[in-house]
Amino acid sequence: MKTSPEGLFVLGYMFFPLFALIFAGLGLFMVLTGSKIMGLVLLLVFTQIFAFGSLKLVGMRKALLAGQAEKPGK
């Protein structure tokens, strides 16, 4: 999956940002309903993992596409 730009596109632009949004909403809901510790863990840990993971995958995809553009055979 890490060698195909399509797989990196799906992960970097679709799934990881969606998971970050879901965990941010769930964490905010948990903080507002009284489970502050677990809500903050969701907000500060899991949301950040998916957000920065998304940026990393997008960078990997751009580097992969730039490498393919340099090769005239592909």
Describe the structure.
The protein has helices at 5-33, 36-70. The protein has one domain. The chain starts with a helix and ends with a helix. By secondary structure, it is an all-alpha fold. Helix 1 packs antiparallel against helix 2.
Précis, in short:
The protein has 74 residues and is mainly α.
Helix/strand layout:
Layout: H1 5-33, H2 36-70
Helix pairs in contact: 1-2
Main sheet overview: none
SSE topology string: HH
Shape: rod-shaped
Number of individual domains:
1
- Our Rg estimate from Cα atoms comes to 16 Å
Q: Residue-averaged pLDDT, rounded?
A: 90
Based on helices, strands and strand pairing, what is the structural class? Answer: mainly alpha
Portion in helices: over 70%
Low-confidence stretches: none
Number of strands: 0
Distance between the termini: 18 Å
* Continuous helix count: 2
Strand content: under 5%
Brief descriptors of the model:
transmembrane helix, 2 helices, mainly alpha, 74 residues
